């Protein structure tokens, strides 16, 4: 594989059986992303955007197709990977950001950021102060999530996703719960992270956010459009 | 950050729920520790009361066994006699550490009450008797100097009744014989408080009972097999064996029967508390379903999640158990008062004996129960698939 | 420290007609328990020794000896000094061989009368 390619997906399919009928949420999508690239996945609701993102992030198994992330052949190899192996890949390669933040309310900002470190400490792990400074939240380190704004909470979620120094950052509707001002802030942050060499793949309904990406994947009915 | 800190902070999310669950565990720990402490305290107290008799086996002349038993616990007059030679015979047994001969004699005193009453005198050996009763201390004076002295030692209550002090005279009714009181004992809480002790040869001489005994107290060596000795003593002619080991066993059997029932109740209380733990932790897992999925997406292995949830039950049960045991210590005296009120016989001393072994055992039992209760909720949490949890977004599955 | 005393009321139908009270006293060879029955005026109606160890026990517990105390009251014992063993009512005669026990009995009687006065008769006057 070209060492400039971080993610390589070929003919990914995700099909569900509903009685005798087969429904394809993702129907043969292929794409590649290199280091420092910001890819936006857009499309109407139910088009398969999140399903695609989940497969890329090893949260879901494709029905068929191949996926390589870095040097690892994740799907489509000689054998299916176990849940433990997938978990290992997830924590070494990926950071996740969700629309609902999912911060633990009884942990401070710093403790939330350090949470992944309770389960796995990567060799390329960053210090919490480093990521807090990067995201401009170092003055809120001792606050609880309940004391933060929506934008601040999303920054904490991003910081948490970055603590183990992942190669890929996956974001599912990262600005879905935010107003336009905060959306701009997050857009700038994601762009900045891409600029530091992190491969960013995000699902978004926000066309402004999508326009800031290096590549846009327009998904309709499970297929790449255009 | 580590899973233990996460577990502890998770419990703080719903403080009232955590407090109530811990409270239930505290109560069951309190019941368990108190009952175990009572069992030990009662046994220790019983052993102490019986050991305070000084000897473990009493030989008396063959007669009514109920009267012999009365001698042991309440004091009284022996009706029949054994020859003094029995002392040598008994002492030949290897299990015997010490023996002390006794001669009880009663004199009818017509000037006691309306119809008269018996005044009892216990003849004891001045050398062997005092070491058998090391707990007897003197308020005034001391033991008589020889076995033929015309001297008396009075128990605390006997001295109070007769208004005697060391140096006063005592008159034996009917014999017109004066004795000098040489010692008054302190209160011992035993039947010795009401006893008038005379030198044994004095009693034999005064009442014409030379060479005769009514009882022989036997102290057995610590490691000796009391049952083996008793079996041999049963073969002696014209004597009967009253064993405190048997009395102790009978009483303990009764106590143990009650204990089984009460421990059963404590066990039920424990099970109910543990059911509360399962319910609380399981509810907590269901509420955090999505969050657990996110943890897994961050790289938490199933074992990590299992450990985290299991740690929550351990902390809950640890805190509740420790609080319950603390409560048992604080309420020990109140519990004792309640037991004494309801039980027909309770030995002296502390009835609820809480020590490191008892409290440690109770704590470990509570903790083990808690860890067992936590297995299912922890297993459920460990099984959560990240994608399903994220999709559900907080709904119950 | 509380010292318990037991006082008995004597009833005729529902009316108290007298009192009974006992005291302990140190005798020569043992404790002596002396009981007195008094009428409402505080006069001795009966005398009884419940317990006594003495060479003169039979005489001291006899009806004749006890009868000597009938009709006596606390005022009759006011001159009596137990320490000096002097001043007892003249009509009281000691049995032979009674020795110190006779004085012990007198002391017990005076003590009994004082206590009854304290528990009953002085309170009534108030």
3D structure, described in words:
The complex is a heterotrimer of chains A (226), B (397) and C (126). By secondary structure, chain A is an alpha/beta fold. Chain A has seven helices and ten strands. In chain A, helix 4 (128-134) packs across helix 5 (150-162) and helix 5 (150-162) packs parallel to helix 6. The longest helix of chain A has 16 residues, at 180-195. Chain B is built from 14 helices and twelve strands. Helices cover 54% and strands 17% of the residues of chain B. The longest helix of chain B is centred in the C-terminal third of the chain and has 44 residues, at 244-287. Chain B has two domains: 3-49 and 251-392, no CATH class; 63-237, no CATH class. Chain B is an alpha+beta fold and 397 residues long. In chain B, the strands form two sheets. In chain B, strands 1, 3, 4, 5, 6, 7, 8, 9, 11 and 12 form a ten-stranded mixed sheet that branches. Chain C has 126 residues and is of the alpha+beta class. Chain C has one domain: Sufe protein. Chain: A, CATH 3.90.1010.10. Chain C contains four helices and four strands, in the order ββββαααα. The longest helix of chain C has 26 residues, at 100-125. The A-B interface holds A 54, 57, 59-60, 83-84, 87-88, 90-92, 96, 98, 100, 102, 104-107, 111, 114-120, 160, 164 and B 1-3, 5-6, 9-10, 12-13, 290-291, 294-302, 304, 386-387, 390, 393.
Distance between the termini of chain A: 26 Å
CATH superfamily of chain A: P-loop containing nucleotide triphosphate hydrolases
Q: What top-tier CATH class of chain A fits best?
A: Alpha Beta
- CATH architecture annotation name of chain A: 3-Layer(aba) Sandwich
H-E order of chain B: HHEHEHEEHEEHEEEHEEHEHHHHHH
Please work out how many helical segments of chain A DSSP would assign.
7
Report the principal-axis shape of chain A.
globular
* Rg on CA atoms of chain B, Å: 32 Å
User: Could you spell the SSE succession of chain A in H and E letters?
Assistant: EEEHEEHEHHHEHEHEE
Based on secondary structure, the structural category of chain B is alpha+beta
CATH topology of chain A: Rossmann fold
The general outline of chain B is elongated
Number of domains of chain A: 1
The stretches of 5 or more residues of chain A where confidence is low (pLDDT under 50) are none
Number-wise, the strands of chain B total: 12
């Amino acid at each position: 594989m070209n060492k400039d390619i971080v993610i390589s997906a070929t003919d990914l399919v995700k099909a569900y059986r509903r009685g005798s009928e087969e429904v394809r949420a993702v129907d043969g999508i292929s794409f590649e992303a290199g280091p420092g690239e910001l890819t936006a996945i857009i499309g109407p609701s139910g088009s398969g955007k999140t399903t695609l993102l989940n497969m890329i992030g090893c949260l879901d198994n494709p029905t068929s197709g191949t996926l390589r992330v870095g040097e690892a052949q994740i799907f489509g190899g000689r054998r299916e990977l176990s849940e433990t192996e997938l978990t290992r890949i997830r924590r070494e390669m990926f950071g996740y950001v969700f629309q609902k933040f999912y911060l633990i309310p009884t942990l401070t900002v710093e403790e939330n950021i350090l949470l992944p470190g309770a389960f796995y400490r990567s060799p390329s792990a960053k210090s919490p102060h480093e990521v807090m400074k990067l995201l401009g939240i170092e003055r809120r380190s001792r606050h609880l999530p309940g004391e933060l704004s929506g934008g601040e909470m999303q920054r904490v979620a991003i910081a948490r996703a970055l603590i183990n120094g992942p190669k890929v950052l996956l974001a599912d509707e990262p600005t879905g719960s935010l107003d336009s001002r905060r959306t701009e802030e997050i857009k700038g942050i994601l762009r900045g992270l891409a600029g530091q060499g992190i491969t960013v793949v995000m699902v978004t309904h926000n066309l402004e956010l999508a326009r800031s990406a290096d590549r846009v994947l327009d998904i309709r009915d499970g297929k790449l459009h255009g | 950050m580590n899973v233990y800190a996460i577990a502890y902070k998770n419990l703080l999310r719903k403080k009232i729920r955590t407090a109530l669950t811990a409270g239930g565990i505290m109560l069951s720990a309190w019941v368990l520790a108190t009952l175990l402490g009572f069992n030990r305290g009662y046994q220790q107290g019983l052993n102490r009361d019986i050991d305070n008799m000084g000897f473990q086996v009493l030989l008396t002349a063959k007669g009514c066994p109920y009267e012999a038993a009365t001698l042991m616990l309440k004091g009284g007059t022996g009706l029949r006699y054994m020859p003094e030679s029995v002392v040598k015979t008994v002492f030949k047994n290897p299990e015997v550490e010490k023996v002390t001969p006794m001669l009880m004699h009663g004199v009818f005193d017509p000037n006691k009450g309306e119809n008269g009453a018996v005044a009892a005198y216990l003849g004891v050996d001045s050398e062997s008797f005092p070491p058998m009763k090391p707990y007897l201390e003197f308020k005034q004076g001391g033991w008589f100097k020889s076995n033929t002295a015309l001297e008396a030692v009075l128990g605390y209550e006997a001295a109070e009744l007769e208004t005697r002090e060391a140096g006063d005279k005592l008159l034996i009714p009917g014999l017109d014989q004066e004795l000098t009181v040489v010692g008054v004992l302190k209160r011992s809480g035993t039947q010795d408080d009401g006893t008038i002790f005379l030198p044994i040869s004095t009693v034999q001489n005064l009442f014409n009972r030379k060479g005769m005994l009514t009882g022989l107290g036997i102290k057995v060596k610590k490691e000796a097999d009391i049952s083996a000795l008793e079996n041999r003593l049963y073969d002696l002619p014209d004597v009967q064996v009253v064993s405190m080991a048997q009395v102790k066993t009978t009483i303990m059997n009764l106590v143990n029967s009650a204990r089984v029932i009460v421990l059963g109740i404590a066990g039920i209380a424990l099970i109910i508390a543990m059911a509360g733990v399962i319910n609380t932790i399981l509810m907590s897992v269901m509420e955090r379903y999505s969050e657990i999925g996110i943890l897994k997406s961050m790289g938490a292995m199933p074992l990590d999640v299992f450990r985290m949830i299991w740690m929550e039950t351990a902390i809950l049960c640890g805190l509740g158990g420790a609080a319950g045991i603390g409560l048992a210590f604080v309420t020990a005296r109140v519990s004792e008062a309640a037991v004494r009120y309801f039980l027909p016989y309770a030995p002296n001393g502390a009835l609820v004996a809480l020590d490191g072994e008892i409290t440690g055992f109770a704590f470990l039992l509570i903790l083990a129960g808690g860890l067992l209760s936590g297995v299912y909720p922890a297993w459920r949490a460990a099984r959560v698939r990240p994608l399903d949890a994220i999709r559900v977004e907080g709904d119950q599955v | 420290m509380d010292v318990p005393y037991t006082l008995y009321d004597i009833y005729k139908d529902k009316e108290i007609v007298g009192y009974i009270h006992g005291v302990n006293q140190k005798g020569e060879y043992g404790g002596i328990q002396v009981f007195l029955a008094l009428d409402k005026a505080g006069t001795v109606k009966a005398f009884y020794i419940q317990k006594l160890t003495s060479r003169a026990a039979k005489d001291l517990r006899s009806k004749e000896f006890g009868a000597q105390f009938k009709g006596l009251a606390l005022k009759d014992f006011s001159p009596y000094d137990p320490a000096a063993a002097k001043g007892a009512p003249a009509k009281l005669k000691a049995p032979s061989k009674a020795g110190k026990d006779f004085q012990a009995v007198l002391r017990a009687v005076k003590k009994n009368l004082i206590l009854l006065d304290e528990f009953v008769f002085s309170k009534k006057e108030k």
